[in-house]
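new request in #modeling-help
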Amino acid sequence: MSSYLDELNGVQRAAVTTTEGPVMVIAGPGSGKTRVLTYRISYLLQKGVPPWSILTLTFTNKSAREMKDRIERVVGPKAQQVWAGTFHAIFARILRAEATKIGYPANFTIYDTDDTTSLIRAIIKEMSLDTNVYNASAIRSRISLAKSNLITPKLYRDKAEMMEEDRTAKRPYLVDIYEKYMARCQRAGAMDFDDLLFQLFRLFRDNPDQVLEKYRQKFQYIHVDEFQDTNYLQYAILRLLVKYEGSGENLFIVGDDAQSIYAFRGATIDNILDFEKDYPTLQTFKLEQNYRSTHHIVAAANQVISYNRRQLNKTIWTDRNERNLIKLVKSVTDDEEGRRVADLILEQRNRYHIPNSEIAILYRTNAQSRKFEEHLRRINIPYRIFGGMSFYQRKEVKDLVAYLRLAVNPLDEEALRRAVNYPARGISDATLDKIAQVAAATNLSMWEAMLHPMLDITDRAKKSLAGFRNMVVDWQKRANTENAYKLASEILRKSGLHDLLKGDTSPEGISRLENVNAVLDAISEFTDSVVLPDPENPDAQNNDKSLSTYLQTISLMTDADEDPDDRDFVTLMSTHAAKGLEFRSVFVTGLEENLFPSFMSMEDPNGIDEERRLFYVAITRAKEYLTITYAQNRYRYGQIRTSEPSRFLEEISPEHFELIGGMGSGRGNNPGPPQPARASVSGNFANPRMPQQKAPIAVPANFITAAPEAIVPGTRVLHLKFGEGKVTQVEGPRDNKVATIVFKEDELPERRIMLKFAKLMVLPAS
DNA sequence: GGGGGCTATGGGGGG
DNA sequence: CATAGCCCCC
């Protein structure tokens, strides 16, 4: 047997070698899930399965790329011929080959969130609706949700519940906006992110013999990573591909319900549950050994996640014996938090020789990054921020890309609006409004409406329009034949963008010019790269070097996919972006009520559970050192706000913490007796056993959180989660007291709770 | 047509 | 507070 199989533990090996039929791998954090996936694909390739009949769907381009590289190390270059990529990228590739069958051009444009929002805003205006009530981005997410659940505008009208929700929100015309939006996208030859799934579903469903059957035969082995984050529509497509008469049902899914953090965009845990129902012959493997993190990190993670109501049975454990306590850092302000984190990083580098690249600062919202930047800069620690505005969202880059998009697909309305009069060429807003009106009246795109006889504009405007059109038409003719780099450089100059940027000699202006030149460099790199073809699908090759393919590729990229330079930098990113990564030292920051958990989640118990899973993801990124921080005061919405420490801090026993900051502390409290890290996370969907699954504690209207001084041995207390209990012991320094409390109805005999976090009320003695 | 300044609005995570 | 959109003025 090949040597790489020897690197696997028993369960991992069994999962890897079970190649036939449906397989589900439930994989805890750090349990070697990527290794299982890559070795399984290597195993298939070594057995002689052709690479182009293997499909692997991931959530980021980066993880797809890494997976291919790791497979390549085992089986060689044919690894690159495996179909591996994000759902969106793979589906875009298939759609490119088949789009004409559903009335889209092969060169369809992909609208990003900004394009989508601005189109929706335009529609709202055209319908003369109140822009205060009809908020474009809120409507965008509702349309997105509908699409991800296969609800067309027509079906939407039949959903009494959704229509009622819109009426209640005073937005009865939402479905009309949805309908118009779909038509406008179609007319512009554009698909938004959801369309890449939605239109693929349509394509498969409406062309069972010509198209679906072809891909069913082609993809004999299908893998899905991060299955807990798939939505209804993604699962529906998978079913089309796998679930049919005579299918081998070789679907291999890997996921962890405890790490499901994308419910907000329609991901549903039901997919895991339904999976067991849909595939009765399913074989399930649980990867429960954590190879990543040390004792206290694993124990804390288990404690936190045990508060969630719905989860699959599993027990995560580690045999790593290092007992670095989790540092819990309290700061008075967000600025102090930034300073303490930067100073601790310096200390860790000096004392433990941890390189910057093994250190990450994680936060709930991208806006929190600023304070960390300031303090890292102050002490000269190099860092790199992921998230926030990506390269392709910068104005100057979008301006150039708009012209490139037009050259490929002039029907693209959003690109047209952006480019038509920038740089200025005498096409006024009034002229554009008239074009839009003609387009609406004739059901044409704006590009076509420009030539319509109905269009009543001055000769001067006509002349300007003609000049613009001729320029674009010329590029369009060459877009399919000419070298993409050469054409793009010409477009940059001929559009007038180059001169415009060159005229600005301010430092920002120079950097803008550098950015557009970087786009040209990226195109050049793209056209020069060589990828092995898929002989079965000459139409859908990933070595298509046209401008059109390039544009489709970049619209699916995020800044996490950009090449990091090889400097040794500290990573700053959101907790969402950190999923799947690991670092020797991790700082999880801003653990405050209304921030983490986010205030957006506070009213919904499911929302709190998702925030808790996010916290679980965050702390399990750490291999050796975990530091959790919170601030008592923080600038938010323009003013200083005082915040309570996050409820999640209360869910970790004090013996895992070493306290830093605040008055009179800074030394660890008594760690207490050693505890096995094998903290059981039991309970399952059918058999509720978790604390929150009980009837909720009746909260008296007069609930007041008691001051720590009021809690002494013998006190009767009411806790917001655990209900009534009696204090048996209080220990620790004055402002870090820990109480041991026996609760009346609790599966544990007693709990140790840090009073400064606890939501406790003193009850009268009985 | 461009720029400056005012106002309203958002405020979360991302392919 | 930061930003985007908008209006107004040049």
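bot summary: Residues 367, 635-639 of chain A lie near DNA strand C (CB under 10 Å from a C1').
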